[in-house]
Amino acid sequence: MTYQDSRMLRLQPGTPDRLAASIHGVIDAETAQRLADRLAALLAAETREVHLDVDQANPLSAAAAAILLFPLLQAARTHDPSITLTVHRADSRTSARMHELGLDRLVTRSDQPA
């Protein structure tokens, strides 16, 4: 993960069973892969919920959404099938791309901050 990537991903304080983070800036496909890898590496044995706030990111392209969310979802479900992934404050374009990819059936959405 590069210095620039670390500025794009901000972890939020939480409890051992909850991983909460926000992404910031322009997230392209290459950056999305590194962010997904970093988030997957942060999954702890106690993790039951993953919350990702995308409010401060530019609208995700379909490629960036797929590259970020599918591997993160796969890592979470491999870690523990009961883990939930919630995407917070996705704008209408990001939401539409998530719907196109079928992600809206796999992740929960929330209009509240993570």
User: Helical proportion?
Assistant: 40-55%
Q: Give the integer mean of the pLDDT values.
A: 92
Please tally the helical runs, counting DSSP H or I stretches of 4 or more residues.
4
CATH superfamily: STAS domain
* Total separate domains: 1
Poorly predicted tracts of residues: none
Strand order of the largest sheet: 1-2-3-4-5
Which of globular, elongated, flat, extended, rod-shaped describes the shape? globular
**Would you list the SSEs in sequence order as H and E?**
HEEHEHEHE
Write the CATH architecture name: 2-Layer Sandwich
The largest sheet is: 5 strands, mixed
The radius of gyration over CA amounts to: 13 Å
Q: SSE layout and pairings?
A:
Blueprint: H1 3-8, E1 9-12, E2 18-25, H2 29-41, E3 49-57, H3 62-79, E4 84-88, H4 92-100, E5 108-110
Helix pairs in contact: 2-3
Provide structural commentary.
By secondary structure, the chain is an alpha/beta fold. The chain has one domain (3-110): Transcription Regulator spoIIAA. 40% of the residues lie in helices and 25% in strands. It contains four helices and five strands. It has helices at 3-8, 29-41, 62-79, 92-100; strands spanning 9-12, 18-25, 49-57, 84-88, 108-110. The chain has a five-stranded mixed sheet. Helix 2 runs parallel beside helix 3 (62-79). It is globular and about 35 Å long. The model has no long low-confidence stretch (mean pLDDT 92).
List keywords for this structure.
114 residues, alpha/beta, Transcription Regulator spoIIAA, 5-stranded mixed beta sheet, 5 strands, globular
